[in-house]
Write a structure and sequence with these properties.
By secondary structure, the protein is mostly helical. The protein has 6 helices and 4 strands; from the N terminus they run ααααββαββα. It has a 4-stranded mixed beta sheet. β1 and β2 form a beta hairpin. α1 runs antiparallel to α3 and α1 crosses α6.
């Protein structure tokens, strides 16, 4: 039985750098969307909240209108009673009955005045709430316009980039399977720990890409030899030599079929 061919460190470095190129491009595509998905989610939640508040205020207006209707009915009832008591006063037999009916008439008159005052108060509250309703409707309209605009913007971006992103995501999964588990875990850990997601970088002019710290000449020789995985002591990222990076970039552009990198 033939022995399993050992994967060289250079092959591992090339595959890692290929994966980094793919993942970096995916990062670029997603950065174009930026905060739009979160903004849209926040706007949508805000509109839902505004509509709920509007619905509550409209319910309160309805309740106040019902209260007005109740008070108007109360006024009508009091007027009927007042007329009844006045008719009864014409047929009373003594002053005691007359005084009793007079007090009842006065009481119903007070009930009418109180109901009218309450109706006035309710109408003031309704007017105030209707102003809030109008303002809320305008605000909801404005927020919906912003939401529609941002959603359309996101949809346009998605239409332009989704095919490329899906293609690259598939490639990322393919290349991930070519990397041994522990090394892949290290790659992902480094990617998650750096701001720009660059876990594998090339050496450029004696320093790792994006760094101002010079790499000692002996270390540069080791990197160029491609005999072992070397980690930048300053940034914690995996280092590859510039020639390898250039070769892999050219290769990946040919594989993907576009100048993506």
């Amino acid at each position: 039985m033939a022995a399993k061919k050992e994967i060289t460190v250079e092959t591992k470095l090339r595959t890692l750098y290929d994966l980094q190129l793919i993942d970096s491009r995916i990062d670029q595509i997603r950065s174009v969307r930026g905060e739009l998905p979160l903004e849209i989610e926040d706007l949508n939640d805000h509109v839902i909240g505004l509509n709920k508040r509007l619905s509550n205020i409209q319910s309160e207006i309805k309740e106040l209108e019902e209260e007005i209707s109740v008070k108007k009915n109360k006024i009508d009832e009091s007027k009927v009673l007042m007329n009844k008591y006045k008719e009864q006063q014409e047929n009373v037999k003594n002053s005691r009955e007359f005084n009793f009916l007079t007090k009842e008439i006065e009481y119903q008159d007070l009930e009418i005045q109180l109901s009218e005052k309450r109706i006035k108060d309710f109408k003031i509250k309704i007017a105030q709430k209707k102003e809030i309703v109008d303002a809320s409707k305008q605000k909801i309209k404005l927020q919906n316009e912003i939401l529609d605009r941002k959603t359309a913007e996101l949809n346009t971006i998605m239409d332009e980039t989704s095919k490329e992103e899906n293609q690259l995501t598939t490639k990322s999964e393919e290349f991930s399977k070519l990397i041994e588990e522990q090394l892949l875990k290290a790659y992902k850990r480094i990617r998650n720990g750096v701001e720009n997601g660059q876990a594998v970088v090339s050496v450029d002019r004696g320093a790792s890409s994006g760094s101002f710290f010079t790499i000692p000449p002996q270390k540069q020789v080791e990197i160029a030899s491609r005999k072992k995985i070397i980690i930048d002591e300053y940034s914690g990222r995996i280092l590859v030599d510039g020639a390898l990076a250039e070769e892999e970039t050219k290769k990946m552009n040919e594989i993907i079929g576009n100048d993506l990198f």
